[in-house]
Amino acid sequence: MRSLRIAFCLSLALAGYGSTHTDWQNLRDKIRATLHIPEPLPNIEAKAYDHFSPVPDVTAERVSYATDYGLRVPAIVYHAAGATIAQHPAIVIVNGHGGDKSSWYAWWAGILYARAGAVVLTYDPIGEYERNALRQSNTLQHDEVIPPEDMGRRMGGLMITDVMQAVHYLEERRDVDPKRIAVLGYSLGSFISSIACAVDTRVRACVLVGGGDLDSSGGYWDSSRKMCQAIPYRSLDFLGDRGAMIYALNAKRGPTLVFNGSDDEVVDIPHHGQDFFTDLRARTIQALGSSRDVFDFQFAPGGGHRPYFLAKPVALWLEDKLRFPNWTRKQIQQMGETPIRDWAASHAVNPPGGSIANEHGEGGTLALGVDIPPVPRSELHAIPESVWDSQRERYVYETWVDRAKSAIAAGAP
Q1: Residue 116 and residue 95: Cα distance in Å, rounded?
Q2: pLDDT tens digits for 315-372?
């Protein structure tokens, strides 16, 4: 009976009915089932190890939490030093391809928004850093194509589950207001976050940068990075107008901001500009039957592929949604900014595989804040050596491959 109900609700959605006729929760359930996102989510099993101070006014905690397939996620959680257990807003940072919690923009965001009074979680995607058997970054293991196609659906589902479990972890912290949790995704992270925030109604605000241009059949997201983008996105064809329906689900959850560089060729923004987003927004309103919380969108003129959640306009948007305890709009508007290419050159920061030296890429980022130093990679190990040596299989990509293949062979949901 439940499958018949889902099919009926989907037919209404595809026929263009508004929210009065669409069972949005069944759509969320169908997305979760298609991408093998567990229901219910695993117990969080949070562990805290130790902490350090990347700057004097910020504390960074080394933690881990459970995700799907019996795996664990290593994370660094930033908050203002000396903060009380009073409830604060919280943010999850979702990296782009090859990125992890040691990426410059991840710990910059951690320090920046911790100073604003938020609790900020950064973590390693599957295959990167402490979820890599050699603890290497920019490996792109999650791009390796493994048949059958259901492995791609499971890869996308694992990445989405990691985000949802990050929200779950923050929700359980005594110093976090569970009604003020935001997810900020960059590039690949924008794609993963768009779906995670569509199915997870606990998220207050969602920011998608270097992406969010959810296009139609045969477009960019259907044809790029097969395992973690193309297969999962094509698998949502049952939604009909996928972009509009995903954004309608996001609107049912709360506000969303899409922010791109107008010249970002990496995710095809030159073909997905003002007209594209205006039309996508109109279709979303039609599918939803309302304009309430339908996504906002902005562009950085002439900008390339960059982590714009560090930019002043995004910080101002987040302040409106989260109400940072240590910042006001006026303070944000008066804050200094750092040209990242110049900063990277002066601090000898040269991350592997990044575009930080490229003015058109990440090097062209004008990041909010002026006194954020590099955080040594060695400080960003979350997992103690004794735990890593005895439990490595609970973190690494190869374990996921084995367990996902076994689940397919067993016919597991």
Answers
A1: 21
A2: 999 999 999 999 999 999 999 999 999 999 998 887 766 678 888 999 999 999 999 9
Angstrom distance (rounded) from CA 186 to CA 308: 8
Instruction: Report the distance separating Cα 174 and Cα 337, nearest Å.
Output: 32
Whether residue 18 lies inside any domain: the answer is: no
> Between helices 242-253 and 188-199, what is the axis angle to 10°?
60
- Give the CATH number of the domain where residue 293 resides: 3.40.50.1820
- Number of domain units in the chain: 1
Range of the domain at 250: 40-409
In a domain, 29, yes or no: no
270, with CB counted inside 10 A (0-12, 13-18, 19+), is exposed
Q: Which two tokens stand for residue 9?
A: 């609700």
Tally of CB atoms within 10 A around 85? 9
Q: For residue 388, what pLDDT band results from cuts at 50, 70 and 90?
A: very high
pTM above 0.70, yes or no: yes
